[in-house]
Design a protein that fits this description.
The protein is an all-alpha fold. The protein has two domains: 104 residues, no CATH class; 159 residues, no CATH class. Helices cover 70% and strands 0% of the residues. It is built from ten helices and no strands. α4 packs antiparallel against α5. It is globular. Its EC number is 3.4.23.43. InterPro entries: Peptidase_A24A_bac, Prepilin_IV_endopep_pep, Prepilin_peptidase/N-MTase. Belongs to the peptidase A24 family. Pfam families: Peptidase_A24 (PF01478). This is Leader peptidase (Prepilin peptidase) / N-methyltransferase.
Length: 271
């Protein structure tokens, strides 16, 4: 099913470039608006909680200033808020170009097959998650969890790897970072990463399988160290400052998918 060729290679690559350019602009806008809408919803929930607590305290009347200390969703959605400001055109153009390139590489890697389309879904989701995490240090469950289930469905009939490999990849991927998180917290008293990173690696494990986890962790760690040191040298980050890990996992996922570092696929076409 997944390996059946429906389109010629040349047409598949051309179509991938077109779809990638369109999808990239939409992903840039979504990466801009989604975290802001989430923050507005959280602010509204906090305001409602404080207002309800103030109203139920015995012997105290609710103070109108209590709820006003936290912005309401209406204020967060007002025209003057960040939510009403669209992403810049250079950012949208750059994202469209990157997405088009990723889709073209995916079409070149898998040809005119349904597996190429599935790979584009994974690459688009990784690009979106990388953009959101880089800008806000958030990895929304509304993206990571459906991505995990989609990986299991793709591998139900052996799309990229076998179903047992996919299930084990999801479980072990989550546990790897969960254990690392708690070991780091036990030793230092600080949290080294967010729970969204666990879910993202689990999703990548579901797509690429258990055997892909070493490469995913290696590439993400190396790229994180290199970029982190570069940011410190350039003065863009302070020494010891926590940096989001999601973008590096996304890069590792794209490299592993396109390079073939998963079960049954030779690395970069070698072997």
């Amino acid at each position: 099913m997944w390996q059946t060729v429906y389109l010629s290679p040349a047409f598949a690559v051309s179509l991938a470039a077109f779809l990638g350019a369109i999808a990239g602009g939409g992903l840039c806008a979504l990466a801009h608006y989604l975290p802001r809408s989430m923050e507005a919803r959280w602010a509204e929930q906090c305001r409602e909680y404080l207002a309800s607590r103030a109203a139920t305290l015995p012997g105290e009347a609710p103070s109108p200033d209590t709820a006003d200390d936290i912005p309401t969703a209406h204020a967060a959605l007002a025209p003057s808020s960040e939510l009403s400001v669209p992403p810049s055109w250079p950012a949208m153009l750059a994202t469209a170009l990157v997405c088009a390139l990723l889709f073209v590489l995916c079409a070149w890697r898998f040809g005119g097959t349904p597996l190429a389309l599935a790979g584009m879904v994974l690459l688009g989701a990784l690009l979106l998650l990388g953009l959101i995490d880089f800008g806000t240090s958030l990895l929304p469950d509304s993206i990571t969890l459906p991505l995990l289930w989609a990986g299991l469905l793709v591998n139900l009939q052996g799309g990229l790897t076998s179903l047992p490999q996919a299930v084990l990849g999801a479980v072990v991927g989550y546990l790897c970072l969960w254990l690392l998180f708690h070991a780091f917290k036990f030793c230092t008293g600080r949290e080294g990463m967010g729970h969204g990173d666990f879910k993202l690696l689990a999703a990548l494990g579901a797509w690429l399988g258990l055997s892909a986890l070493p490469m995913l962790l290696l590439v993400s760690s190396i790229s994180g160290v290199i970029i982190g040191l570069t940011l410190v040298r350039l003065g863009r980050a302070a020494r010891g400052q926590a940096l989001p890990f999601g973008p590096y996992l996304a890069v590792a996922g794209a490299i592993t998918l396109l390079g073939g570092g998963y079960a049954g696929a030779p690395l970069f076409g070698l072997g």
